[in-house]
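[09:14] KT: can someone run the structure on this one? pasting the chain below
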Amino acid sequence: MVEKTLGRVLIGKYSELPDRLGKTFFVRDEEIALFKLVNGDVRAIENRCPHKGGVLAEGMVSGDHVFCPMHDWKINVCDGQVQAPDHGCVRTYQVEVEEDLVYIII
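[09:31] RB: done, structure tokens below
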């Protein structure tokens, strides 16, 4: 059995993140979409839509949701849940911001 341990990975500077746009990061073997929301919160989710694998970092952000650029599925970036009438979910990652630095817990 392989045990995965949690690790804190520095992603970059908070001040350099674009507002309401996604950015793709590769951490270990994970492709992660990072979003800085209009309220300043930073959220991280798996970067592939569960429907057809659309790149979520390229989607439009509105409030706490990103819209998949392929078929417009609406996904909550806080809990990873696809919104009705569609269904499914993506993995979410804990984000920590200290000073001007952004970390993902993976």
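[09:33] KT: thanks! The beta strands are 8-13, 22-27, 30-36, 42-46, 60-62, 65-67, 74-76, 92-98, 101-105.
[09:34] RB: yep, looked fine to me
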